[in-house]
Amino acid sequence: ASYGPNPICKGCLSCSKDNGCIRCQHKLFFFLRREGMRQYGECLHSCPSGYYGLRTPDMNRCSRCRIENCDSCFSRDFCTKCKAGFYSHRGRCFRGCPPGFAALEELMECVEGCEVGQWSEWGTCSRNNKTCGFKWGLETRTRQIVKKPAKDTIPCPTIAESRRCKMAVRHCPGGKRRRPAKTKDKKKKKKNLMERAQKQHSIFLATDKTSQ
After folding, report:
1. DSSP 3-state helix, strand, coil percentages of the chain (rounded to 5)?
2. 159: alpha, beta or left, given left = phi > 0 and alpha = psi -120 to 50?
3. pLDDT at position 162, please?
4. Sorting pLDDT into bands at 50, 70 and 90, what band is 120?
5. Do domains 7-64 and 70-112 have the same CATH topology?
6. Is the pLDDT of residue 207 over 60?
7. Pick the CATH number of 7-64 from 3.30.565.10, 2.40.160.20, 2.10.220.10, 3.40.830.10
8. Which residue(s) pair with 35 in the sheet?
9. H/E segment holding residue 54
């Protein structure tokens, strides 16, 4: 029988014109549907979104999922599919995956991600593989991959990072001793120029006397 626009007595063992199904056939689930101020019973092969099938000796029923943002659940406290925009993780729904887990977008699930260790201490400040001779350099720290991700497509966090640093030793040892050598070379060049100038001057004087 059908009362109004809904076939509310389909699959019923007993049915009421006002309340719909009161008892369902074997293997079907009793679902109490609410529409505004009215409610009526239905017998369904599977429970609607937000409900799960609870089988009991008395009668199978559709029971509401009690997990926040859950679309379908296996039991009262274990979600199997979350609402759009939420990730499923161990029967719960999250906006973002917990630490140590990565989001698998195609399934909207949280899977074991790439686990990394603690950062090492910052290394020696250097530049061009030298620890002196410059005012500023770079120092680096690293960390190790402790556990690889469950999926190769899941990237690991960065395992090395660098930052600008001020060198403790501005001038390299022995660097000041090279400067006198440069000064000596300049003096030598200057002396050679003076000798060449004196020689050219002597030749000029000799040529001038001959012409007289």
Report:
1. 15, 40, 45
2. alpha
3. 93
4. very high
5. yes
6. no
7. 2.10.220.10
8. 38
9. strand 51-54
